[in-house]
Amino acid sequence: MPHQSGEKTDRSSLRLIYARLFSHRKALFLGILALIGVDGLQLVVPKVFQRVIDALASGNVDSDLIWQMGAVIMAVTLGMAVCRFFWRWFIVGTSHRIDRDLRSEFYDHLQKLPAEFFDGIKVGDVMAHATNDINAVRMACGMATIASFDAVFMGTASIVMLITINWRLALVTMIPLPLIALLVTRFSGIIHDRFEAVQKAFSDLSEKAQEAFSGIRVIKAYGDEESENRLFDDKAKLNLDQNIRLARVGGFFQPLVSSLALAGSAILLAAGGRMIIGGSISLGQFVAFSSYLAMLTWPMMAIGFVVNMLQRGAASMSRLMRIINTVPAIADGDDPSSPEPFIEVKNLTFAYPETSVEVLSGVTFSLEKGRTLGIVGRTGSGKTTLVELLMRLYDPPPGTVFLGGKDVRRLRLGNLRKLFGYVPQETFLFAMTIAENIAFGAGDVPPERIRELAEAVDIAGEIDGFSQGMDTVVGERGVTLSGGQKQRIAIARALAMNPGVLVLDDSLSSVDTETEDAILKAVKRMTRDITTIIIAHRISTVQHADLILVMDGGRVVEQGTHDDLFSRGGRYTELYRMQQLEAEAGGSRRKGDS
Questions:
Q1: What are 365's strand-pairing partners?
Q2: pTM, whole model, 2 decimals?
Q3: Same domain as 169, residue 35
Q4: For 161-191, how does the pLDDT look when each residue is reduced to its tens digit (9 = 90+)?
Q5: Per the domain annotation, does 337 fall within a domain?
Q6: Angle formed by the axes of helices 177-214 and 225-278, nearest 10°
Q7: Does residue 465 lie in a domain region?
């Protein structure tokens, strides 16, 4: 039963490959015509040699015939070269266009998938899809297509030519053909399964490499290079073993097919030699027959090559389509209007997909346009989850989250997320210049505006100290910058969007309180009409907010202004006093050190 299911998957995946080929049918048709031209001209050469050899054997030959036949062969060679250029141009070019389209489709679909999809898939697996799998599909669309059409046409034409020379000899020399067909049927499923295992091993290896490179500073800090090397070696060995298993099948399959194909040549020597002696065929016919039989050898060998490429392509297409056919769990709503930055949350209760633990429970609040919301609470209290639900990075339950009086689930995702400028906890910068990072997502931002934003977040002076200034490339994930520098550039990037709602998710944790205060004042000045949400651990970060939510265990345990909450003597007051004591203790230690 599993094998039958695999065969159905193969057929379905092959149909998808053929459908993509058919969408380029004009180029494919022209390429096949050029390929047939090559094969047709190639069939002329043995006939030329047959005529020359028979003339030499009979003694009826002159120099004119030799020159004529030489000219014919030269013309045939030139014609084959021209046709070969065009079939490569059209067919190989088509395979690369399919490669480009498939990569774009795969990448575009990944962009549409929600955060929960990436929570459950390895980066290495995605990279294996984007590299090995797409390359395998390209090979199936290119070389496998060429080989299959070439094998069909050349095989058929060669058989016809063999029969026209001597049908009895043709039947005898083609005895190995059914055995080759049987081998192909037997090995195709094995090749498919082993190639799947190869791709899985490559995914695991890529994931391990990506993880190690991303965490290289931690690895070095802990002096854990040796154990990491062992883990990587284990993954590399598994990848090697799976590739060897696949190569072992190919190493057995291809020579076996070749041996059966060459068995026909042995039969020709025995049977054809006797026919020459008996006068049934001429020496020229024997040479021509031998040439056509040699031409038939390639199509028989090509069967193995084509099956190998198509099985790999089918396995890869199946893996790709599992992702491309994944329906995004978060879809566009039917309301095309742009929402207003007036936020309402009503009795919001939420658990992450495939879990039963409530991250948020009964959260209710409202925030008018242009006001500032502060959210404080212990780690894991649901602060980040709350703002992610506002932006529909995860889907809230219906009728719980509203923007401008409209349920966020009814809004178009593009319009909804365009409203937000988001600075997440884990600051991510791209491997480009500082100026490009600040302008990311905002289109063409004038240099003077970039400068203004950098000054607003108190980093312009530090940037001026870099050798290339704003044109300094920050490295992958901003590795050349400190945590505080990355956070401030990320805030400038969010401000460059001119958002309706600015979300700062613990985005000032890596700067001191004085710098934090300066940044908050500048942000407030620049975002006078912008709704702002600030998530923080420090009370000082949010104490000037118009509304403060105190969260604990996924619930809002207190809400109000700083003065209101402090006067109640509850959880907020406890946090405030605790942080005041910590600050005083820290100040005392610094004085003692000095």
A1: 345
A2: 0.69
A3: yes
A4: 989 888 888 888 888 777 776 776 677 667 7
A5: no
A6: 160
A7: yes
